[in-house]
Specification:
Its EC number is 1.6.5.11. By secondary structure, the chain is of the alpha+beta class. It has eight helices and four strands. Strands 2-1-3-4 form a four-stranded mixed sheet, with helices on one face. Helix 2 (about 15-25) runs antiparallel to helix 3 (about 30-45) and helix 7 crosses helix 8 (about 150-165). The structure holds FE2/S2 (inorganic) cluster (FES).
């Protein structure tokens, strides 16, 4: 478990949001997937205590839930940053210096692929082609796309999001 996850785990997870989600879906057939999706929307990931709560209230084994969570890449068992910085590592971006962009992110925020800053503000992800090869090298921060990235532009983007809440 990462340091960030350990730290978050030490803090109590408020289960109110998860209980509200379960209340909404509990009578629905096949409730598990929508419950997991909605719980992730509430917390940004699936905290371990919510797995046990869901298991108890939906009458399924925790192992079944972990099976679903590990099968579907959309679910995250560890906390993630508010801003997900995706660095495209596809061929076009690679050729145009994606490695340098990833290195800059690592140097400035101390996070590599699938790592999250301690303040839970940023998570880095190295991803395959995101379909904007004409603007290579490309990054995304949540839903915003930034193309023709340079080290200087990377610093500007990082500074912009650091300044935001
Ligand atoms: S290779 Fe990066 S957008 Fe296609």
């Amino acid at each position: 478990m990462s340091e960030v996850a350990e730290k978050v785990k030490e803090e109590e997870v408020d289960l109110t949001g998860a209980n509200e989600v379960i209340d909404k879906y509990i009578d629905m057939k096949g409730a598990l997937m929508p419950v997991l999706q909605a719980v992730q929307d509430v917390y940004g990931y699936i905290p371990e205590p919510t797995v046990h709560l869901i298991a108890e209230r939906l009458n399924v084994y925790p192992s079944q839930i972990y099976g679903v969570l590990t099968f579907y890449a959309q679910f995250h068992l560890e906390p993630r940053g508010k801003y997900i910085v995706r660095v495209c590592m596809g061929t076009a971006c690679h050729v145009k210096g994606a490695g340098r962009i990833a290195d800059t992110l690592k140097d400035r925020l101390k996070i590599g692929h699938a790592e999250t800053t301690e303040d839970l503000k940023f998570t880095a992800e190295y991803v395959a082609c995101i379909g904007a090869c004409g603007m290579a090298p490309v990054i995304m921060v949540n839903d915003a796309t930034y193309g023709s990235m340079t080290v200087q532009k990377m610093d500007e983007v990082i500074a912009k999001y650091k300044a935001m809440d």
